[in-house]
Amino acid sequence: QVQLVESGGGSVQPGESLRLTCAASGFPAKYYALGWFRQVPGKEREAVSCINSKDEITYYDDSLEGRVTMSRDNDKNAIYLQMNNLKSDDTAVYYCARGAAACPARALRTTMPAIFFSWGQGAQVTVSS
């Protein structure tokens, strides 16, 4: 059974860091594109980053530029999202999901929630002073 489970969310103050983990099971994650998404209540789910089957990473959210790093550990069948210098606007539920083998181009960012599948349950990240 394909399953993705996010962890590592929490409440932090502005400027602090968090590392999200997405543990995959039921399939070999290294052969698929895996993406991080986030969603604020009342808004569309948006793509943050994606790693493809060649371990090439695409970042989609310019507001996070220089503050997030995505990685994958094939031995642990997991992906990670390191987020630094967090801001209040980063408050959201963060999800991971599985796609095909390739990550969409940045221009196709808005289509990504519809073409990714096998979503995790989400991890709440709250940034507040």
Q: Give the biggest beta sheet.
A: 6 strands, mixed
- Rg, please? 13 Å
- The side-by-side strand order for the widest beta sheet comes to 2-10-9-4-5-6
Spatial separation of the terminal alpha carbons: 40 Å
Unreliable spans are none
Number of helices: 1
Structural class: mainly beta
What is the share of helical residues?
A: under 10%
Indicate the overall shape.
globular
Notes on the protein architecture:
A hairpin with a 4-residue loop joins strand 7 and strand 8 (78-83). The chain has one helix at residues 112-115, and strands spanning 3-7, 10-12, 18-25, 34-39, 46-51, 57-59, 68-73, 78-83, 92-98, 123-127. The protein has 1 helix and 10 strands. Helices cover 3% and strands 43% of the residues.
Structure described in brief:
Helix content is 3%, strand content 43%.
List the helices and strands and how they pair.
Layout: E1 3-7, E2 10-12, E3 18-25, E4 34-39, E5 46-51, E6 57-59, E7 68-73, E8 78-83, E9 92-98, H1 112-115, E10 123-127
Parallel strand pairs: 2-10
Antiparallel strand pairs: 1-3, 3-8, 4-5, 4-9, 5-6, 7-8, 9-10
Features:
10 strands; six-stranded mixed beta sheet; globular; 129 residues; four-stranded antiparallel beta sheet; mainly beta
